[in-house]
Amino acid sequence: MTAQKKVLVTGGAGYIGSHTCQALARAGYLPVVYDSLVYGHDWAVQWGPLERGDIRDSARLDEVMRLYEPCAVVHFAAFAYVGESVHDPSKYYLNNVAGSLSLIDAAQRNGIANFIFSSTCATYGTPERLPITEDSPQNPINPYGASKLMVERMLEDFAAAYGSRFIALRYFNAAGCDADGRIGEDHDPETHLIPLVLDAASGRRPDVTVFGLDYDTRDGTCIRDYVHVCDLASAHVLALGALLSGQPSAKLNLGLGYGFSVLDVINSVERVTGLKVPVVHGARRAGDPAALVSDPTRAMAALGWKPAFTDLDRIVETAWAWHQKHRPVR
Ligand code: NAD
Ligand code: UDP
Q1: Catalytic residues, which ones?
Q2: 61 — alpha (psi -120 to 50), left (phi > 0) or beta?
Q3: Is the pTM of this model over 0.90?
Q4: 216 CA distance to ligand 1 centroid (A)?
Q5: Shortest-distance atom of ligand 1 to CA 95
Q6: Shortest CA distance to 78 belongs to which of 8, 4, 12, 167?
Q7: Distance, CA 193 to ligand 2 centroid (Å)?
């Protein structure tokens, strides 16, 4: 019998990290969560041990890496509020860049040669054309996107220097929740569109503000590519398998390849919940590109990835199921 492979999952107590731990466990790995719980939740760690620690703490990283001897690091831990990154860039460069450097260094020191990184469509900035391929220029327009691009560059440099390999997964908009409702999206503060529209439908908030109706899009509102969190999770399992079987480093988009407008999302929530969403028309949010839509064909070819959730209503249904259980009206 072969020993169960251990995977160190930083940020595994968060939204996408916890869904990925579930998928890793289903695939036979033991996810070891390394999380400071600055934003995550201990109840979301259900498939392996929780080691509390900060990615900037090298001694603690060494201790945990020596204890478990993981075959790979899957790195979600980061701050991810775009607006906050504009007003407090230091917080983002310290956590996302210095923290990631500390982690990549520790992995190298402890002989862990496989690394999967949560990157983002925010590394592209405002795209010149759609859909966005991996070869599109990366010109981030906020410190959050810049911090993620710097980590991609660090991973490339470490791979060249030490022969390690990495896969950077550039997610578009993560959405939805685990279908059986064990874990879900629970950010505080919440800034993402789908949970906010659900809050407005259920009366947890009085309304939702549409940030801009004057974009050059089919209905004037921003278009995003919403990809289900369980499909993101399955891509991580495939990426891990690819690295462990010797495939080369890669940078891959994860999205559906088509987008939905803010009004599409509101209409979908009304269909799924049967409730009216009170809507307020607001100004554009600074730093929002009109449309971000992926070309995911490279991830599909390299990993054999195929998203299971391709319909917005099905994605919203899973978010609504979680919402009803865990985000009741106050
Ligand atoms: P999240 O806030 O739910 O999870 C992040 C986790 O990292 C939290 O549990 C937090 O406690 C932990 N963490 C943060 N800093 C830490 C540190 N210094 N040391 C240890 N733990 C730390 O966020 P999420 O939405 O699950 O996003 C996960 C990753 O995916 C992030 O790297 C984010 O940038 C990236 N991403 C998210 C989206 C999205 O739509 N949610 C899109 C693109 C990329
Ligand atoms: N959005 C909105 N009202 C809100 C929150 C978001 O109109 O209260 C819009 C936002 O401008 C963007 C889209 O919804 O076009 C998705 O935003 P979110 O913050 O969920 O993700 P982002 O695309 O910023 O990563």
Answers
A1: 144
A2: alpha
A3: yes
A4: 31
A5: 18
A6: 12
A7: 5
What is the CB-side half-sphere exposure of residue 45 using CA atoms within 13 A? 23
CB 121 within 8 A of CB 284: no
Q: What is the DSSP letter of 97?
A: I
- CATH 3.40.50.720 spans which residues of the chain? 6-175+227-254
Whether 20 is in the pocket of ligand 1, judged by its Cβ within 6 Å, is: no
Q: Give residue 329's pLDDT.
A: 62
Instruction: Say if ligand 1 is within 6 A of residue 234 CB.
Output: no
3-class DSSP assignment, residue 224: strand
Fold entry, domain 6-175+227-254:
Rossmann fold (3.40.50)
Please provide residue 315's backbone torsions phi and psi, each rounded to the nearest 5 degrees: -65, -45
DSSP 34: E
Query: If the chain, 330 residues long, is cut into consecutive pieces of 10 residues, what is the mean pLDDT of each piece?
Result: 89 98 98 98 97 98 98 98 94 98 98 98 96 98 96 98 98 95 90 97 97 97 98 98 98 98 98 98 92 98 98 98 79
Fold of 193-224+257-326: UDP-galactose 4-epimerase; domain 1 (3.90.25)
Across-strand partners of 75?
10, 117
User: Cα separation of 108 and 328, whole Å?
Assistant: 45
128: Cβ contacts below 8 Å, ≥ 6 apart: 136, 137
Within the chain, all domains assigned CATH 3.90.25.10 are found at: 193-224+257-326
In sequence order, which ranges of 163-228 are alpha helices (DSSP H)? 193-202
Taking the C-alpha atoms of residue 156 and residue 73, their distance in angstroms, rounded to an integer, is 15
Ligand 2 nearest atom to the CA of residue 192, by list position: 20
